[in-house]
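S., here's the first fold you wanted:
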Amino acid sequence: MLVSCIPEPGIGTGKSRTIPVHGRSQVDKIGKSKVLASDHETLNENVKKPQYVVRGELYLRASELQKEGKKIIFTNVGNPHALGQKPLTFPRQVVALCQAPFLLDDPNVGLAFLADAIARAKHYLSLTSELIYLTDGASKGVMQILNTIIRGQSDGILVPIPQYTLYSAAISLYGGSLVPYYLEETANWGLDVNNLRQSVADARSRGITVRAMVIINPGNPTSQCLSEANLQEILKFCYREKLVLMVNEVYQHNIYQDAQPFLSARKVLLDMVLPIASISLSPNVLGQIFMGLMVSPPNPGDISYQKNVVCNFTKGAMYSFPQIRLPPKAIEVAKMAGKVPDVFYCLKLLEATGISTVPGSGFGQKEGFST
């Protein structure tokens, strides 16, 4: 059934009402207007391809159980306020002043607003409209940029894997090609520029023109924070390859440790264009220790030897991305049920505990990593 708006006679085009339409086409006996209907088979294929696993089978099943009275803990959607995080005061104060700039002229404005919020609001209000592009949410901004960049199937977008599924869905919707570059779980979801080069070379060998690169910092769903050195490598790489760099920094305020603080790619870029001269006077001791641990990991029998459940430290964003190695028998049962193993595990976890998660396969994780 298609619900269509059809002008009623004698009222003009200013008024309309919805009329259910069945079949391929139908003429409304009142308005005498032809309305075309569509079904699933005739829809644009690019509209049917995208999948959003964050609100997929697990989420739908969780919603059903919630309606049945089961208490559900939804961990699938990255909404910090829904999980009890207090709204950020500073951004709200700045936005309030920008929306009501006359408050800045009030002599008592400092009693209600923080001084740095007032200064930031004045800065934003001094900018011209040519420097600002507003969208109704980050996702719409991402989709508009991708829609501008992608011309057809031969245009590729570099996307980190595991990835926030908005990108694969939008790229598919606009008829482009997703070019994956894999983050290394064993290196705390680190990014290796050599992997980027290989991904671009592989794409070009298939006739794909790579036009843009996506980075998510802090990682979603992997939670890592990119280092300054990593960001510099990425910026240089995009400059050499003439790529548009799309930077997702939505969760920059959700940082849970001090060892690896959040750094904005824009700030790193601005710092790079200035003349810099420095000499390293001391070795990177922590880096040397980490490298030593990587080449000489724990041995069987050691307390830190590989377990069935491991997880890199959650540095930021809204997700932890653990790796759960399922036993062969569980994988066999999942296949008999016609389910991907990690989806089967997450469904069983949901029904047993009421915890709604997202299977790692939905984020494009490498096969064999049941995260």
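And the second, which I think is the more interesting of the pair:
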Amino acid sequence: MKTKVLFMGAGAIGRGYLPWTLDESKHEFVFIDSNPKIVERMRQQGSYSTYRVKDEAYEHKRVQVKAAYTPAEFSLSEHQDAVACFFSVGPRNAEKAALLMQGAKFPLIMCENEPETVTVAKRALGHSNIYFAVPDVITSNTAPAHLLEQDPLAITTENGVQFIEQGPFELHGEMTLLPREELLRHQWTPKLYLHNTPHCITAYLGALMGCTYVHEAMAHPKAAQLVEGAMNEMLQALKLQWDIPHDFLDWYAQKELSRFRCQQLFDPVARVAREPLRKLELHGRLIGAAQMCLTLGVLPQNLLKGIVGALLFEDVHDPDHHIRMMHESMPTADFNRYVLGLRPGEPLDLMLQDKMAAITAELRSLPRRTA
């Protein structure tokens, strides 16, 4: 008999990637998502298509949907027989989503871009049967038009690797279990600084150029040069800071640049650039990355441009769409202190004050993409 796996979040990772990592002959899938249109479509269709990019072509998988719910409709009492619940709802939503699992008897696996979500969920639920995961993959939340015509729920993903903190799992599929310390050092650290950092910079440059997808931004030489420059700054810092084999870091960096250029993924700029204030947190992928570089004597010239790119990001549908208004209405020193949390007079604060106008002019001069 098949065992049940829950997916909290039916977006890019939950709908597009995770079903590839689990043996559907051993498991059945239940989805919980805040978008009622996705939930209703899943119920109507009973299945959907996910496409995996492999050797520049698509592999097709038709995923069967056992059930689909909005959070308001979901009742844990009906699903205590599940063997695990994978979370991919975004770090800001992790605590609220975790509360739906109050009293769960099965492990929760946090596929979020922040290890702290494990601590948040443990605190909210009062138990420790919660584990961190690092999906080493880029997954879009959409698909090219011709695939969407066949199935509005279609989604595209890479052929990635799923790394999970060791735990008492009854899961069957393709995944690598690692001790927590090894997972954080050898998988999360490179992903944070060699994937998340240049990936979001690519998206912010793409937004300024009017690109829809990440690969379109990387097709422009100037944008690609800035992204590669940021990647090299992070490589220098990681090699100085962490005891991670240098050849592995070099391989990882080249792998990521190739991913950003992949024309089959159709990875939306809006998805990667979303929530710029979260990406500008003090210890995160932009501010934290630049601070690490400065501490180690690496000049973060391209990372500074990524930070300014985040400040210039404008999408009325994004929850952080007010960032540009705040940035433009406040003196840079005040914005750095009260919004970004930088200490007055520290090196990154002074560099941003000194370079802000010139970098803004440079980024605004990037050519607009034409259809």
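Why I say that: DSSP finds 16 helices and ten strands in the chain. Residues 3-178 form a domain with the Rossmann fold fold (CATH 3.40.50.720).

Talk tomorrow,
H.
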